[in-house]
TrEMBL record, chain A:
GO biological process: tRNA wobble uridine modification
GO cellular component: a single term: elongator holoenzyme complex
PANTHER family registered for this protein in UniProt: ELONGATOR COMPLEX PROTEIN 4 (PTHR12896:SF1), PAX6 NEIGHBOR PROTEIN PAXNEB (PTHR12896)
Pathway in which this enzyme or protein is active: tRNA modification; 5-methoxycarbonylmethyl-2-thiouridine-tRNA biosynthesis
Top-rank taxon: Eukaryota
Keyword tRNA processing carried by entry: yes
Protein name: Elongator complex protein 4
The organism of origin for this protein: Papilio xuthus
TrEMBL record, chain B:
Entry protein name: Elongator complex protein 6
Family of the protein in this entry: Belongs to the ELP6 family.
GO BP of this protein: tRNA wobble uridine modification
One CC-aspect GO term: elongator holoenzyme complex
Domain of life: Eukaryota
Pfam families cross-referenced by the UniProt entry: ELP6 (PF09807)
Amino acid sequence: MSSFHKKSDSQYSIKGTKLKNNLPYISSGIPSLDHIIGGGLPSGAIFAVEEDLLGSYSRVLTKYYLAEGVTSEHALFIASADEDPHIIVNELPQPCTDLPKEVAPKEGNVEMKIAWRYEGLGQVESSFGSNSLFGHNFDLSKNMDKETVQNRNITYCFLNEDEYGNKDKVKGFKNYMFFKLLTEIKDLVSKEEFHTSGKNKNILRISIQSLGSPIWLAADCDENINSDYGQDLIKFLYTLRLILRDTLAVAFITVPSHLFDDEHLMPRLLYSIDNAVRIESFAGSSRETNPVYSDYHGLFHVTKLSAIYSLVPYVPPSLDLAFKLRRKKFVIEKLHLPPELQESSEREQDDITAVPKSVGCGGFKKKDIDF
Amino acid sequence: MATDIISALELDKENIHSRILVVKEINNCSSSFITSCVLGHLIKKKSAVLIISTHNSIKHYQNVGLKMNYNLNRCIDDGLVQFYNFGEEYVDKLLKNEYISVEQIYQNITDKIEYMRKKYNVVNVIFDGVSHLLDMYYNIKEINLICSKIIELIREYNSLLICHFNVASEHDLTHVLANFLSHKAFMVVEVENLASGWSSDVSGHLTIKYPGKKFDNEHMHSLEIKPAQYLFKLFDRGVKLLAPGTV
């Protein structure tokens, strides 16, 4: 037997992680999302989600991320200025224990053969990460046991407006909330268990909800001159990037970029962010009723992918992505047009004059039509 | 695999001294591959380098370097390379409610260069993530001052300076900052992600402009020198430059 052992296996034996480019990766709680961003969220990096207009789907993504952390026994840090972070923890979905059973072929059923001319073609994979063993699926209809959640190492940080009165305490930020959050994160990250070289290593999952919402940027709007709008936010994200770098902490932040007053702000923030995606929900838009998108709940855009500890950034399998939310799954798929639109007649009157069965030979009656 | 980049940047020529290279990152493209390639080249030539970093960590360059056949940590131990993690210093001070003045930044950089010059005649400087100084709330005037002073040092010691700027968008302050320094540059390198998204065949566009050659004899009678345009493809162990239209 060879005396050589792969060093990496023993070095990163943290539950719920896998190693890529000498860096531990964790699951976002959505296998298809992990697949399109290159295998998961790298440790020591910031992952940002640009929220949908109503913020409902980005909230679901946060729940999955935290639920995956609870399932993998990672430490959690949950911060929010808009609502008490205890609320979202009470809503975490339960992991699905039963795996989808494979359908057994019926007896006497001859296996189908592919025509020879299509045999050489690669298999079309429109739904990503379905075969992945990394990460879990969660059932949104059931909440996680309170006991399981309580047993985990969770730190809450509810930043309310009272902090705003402390703005003169710090030089670096106009809004004290940014400073407070940074110091709390720094204190937590400096613990030995979140160092790459420490003993009893564990992952720290940081979640910041709606970073940059009006509560965060209130101080920027006070000023008459709007030249440094969002400066605190830019500085915060850059500082967060440096605090997390080369540690075992991962930040998952949701940003309501559609609320920003300045269109230059998001591109500036993206420089400090490592990986970013944007959710475009159909809810409330004209696309909701468009038959082309009838199978989906919204579009999913990959905005930025970084190469950490490597030269080559991951190239996603497709850039036309759409998502749908099922009870037990959040699926991101390659956007396909439906094979055929719903049956429609060429001329409108054809439909109207068609004789309904109940009407008999009496012909068409106006009252039978439901508008 | 780094030879394409080195020859495109004309670093393989004999007289590369007192040169300023400005690298602009457009459309969220990362230019860290240029730093890694140049580092490999300078280490091979036993030429000393000071890396001032605000964006990427030393571990990133170390991991990439190992794949590209050089050990950065060993070079740091030997004193050939020095890594000044300015970003970390800034954050430490910020969280202690302190502030680093422009003079202090410049002094720190000068001290490090002077220290290296005791052993090496030529000390090259790579400044990674100059645009982050804007994030730290230094204004354009202050950043320009820092860069100008580093340029003075470089000219004095006949070295090479590479500055990396991120351009967030065309009408942004980051673009203005990058353009300021481009006027002083010998060569401006623009790296840009594909506008249509990602591709497995090509990683992005690379355009090289030559403001420093404007007054060369051969270009004296042309209004503007034609920029060199390439496509680049990143690999685990290096970069390949391709002519446009060949992929």
